[in-house]
Amino acid sequence: MSAEAVAGTGPKPKKSVALSGIIAGNTALCTVGRSGNDLHYRGYDILDIADTCEFEEIAYLLVHGKLPNVAELAAYRAKLATLRGVPEAVRETLERIPAAAHPMDVMRTAVSVLGGVLPEEDGHEAAGARDIADRLMASLGSMLLYWHHWTRSGKRIEVETDDESIAAHFLHLLHGKPPRASWVRAMHTSLNLYAEHEFNASTFTARVIAGTGSDLYSALTGAIGALRGPKHGGANEFSFEVQQRYATPEEAEADIRRRVAAKEVVIGFGHPVYTLADPRNRVIKEVARRLSAEASNMKMFAIAERVEQTMKEAKNMFANLDWYSAVSYHMMGVPTSMFTPLFVISRTAGWSAHVIEQRADGKIIRPSGNYVGPEDLPFVPLAQRR
Prior knowledge:
Layout: H1 3-7, E1 30-32, E2 39-41, E3 44-45, H2 46-49, H3 55-64, H4 70-81, H5 88-96, H6 103-117, H7 126-153, H8 166-175, H9 181-194, H10 201-211, H11 216-227, H12 235-243, H13 249-261, H14 279-294, H15 299-315, H16 321-331, H17 339-361
Antiparallel strand pairs: 1-2, 2-3
Helix pairs in contact: 3-9, 3-17, 5-6, 5-7, 6-7, 6-11, 7-8, 7-17, 8-9, 9-14, 9-16, 9-17, 10-11, 10-17, 11-17, 12-16, 13-15, 14-16
């Protein structure tokens, strides 16, 4: 066989751009980076809503199509509060997941099991999908923290608290007591910032699954699997790991400059869509500053800020949302392994809205590949092969 036959005579491999810049569908949910540093949810600028709205307002906007009025928000809060419970079959499954499991694996499994216990009806009506989305946003924190406390203390916690919001409910279950108001506000802001981001990897995964006619639980289980990766949602955990390496801002700057010179990747900087800055960074940075000042502990923030400045000077790269989210979550006592699960709770709003939108489109997503393998190889029967 010739070298040419092995190498192939078809199209040469194209440089991988991972679909960057390719329009893969229509959406009325979100725009990202059209000016280089902007983000809008259904036409609303993230800078106007992130640190002002409760997460329930943003969830309602994404899943139900509009910002709620006072009465609608009150009714929505009340509805979500009734959906915090965890079915017995799901609790039994959670108790079987080892303590060493990553919380993202817990989230993925919990969603899949819930889909078996309370399946989506065959018609996949939008109203039913919205109800499932609401149940998931209300109960994902319950499921995660039920597992967390059971595997660490053997305690079966009561997950149905009287907290008004998803943010307060999560913090209450995590720490075993009602959270301070400043933490609840910070959590609302963080959840708002993570709620939606157009056709990112996990959202696109959800839309691909939805396009096959599959159920909402399957689409979101796949999305969680995509978000688990360190190049996507897992980046906030790695950001924290970077920040914890250093004792002082000076030590951080020296090491980051060394790493940049060695062409190492520093997690938490740059973005495949934004070209000028991540607009969410300015919001979460202020949240991190407030929480650090409240705790009278500016060390981690100072290190994070010095690294941010150094990356800008040395490589002209900007911090993304994950960088100061790590500081914020740490200041609220959230375990590092739960950073990305919080992302899941928030992004469930965006994922669900995209699934509903993809179903309305009614098309299966099936791109083509650029074949670069061998061509026209002669077939050799098994008995003649050496």
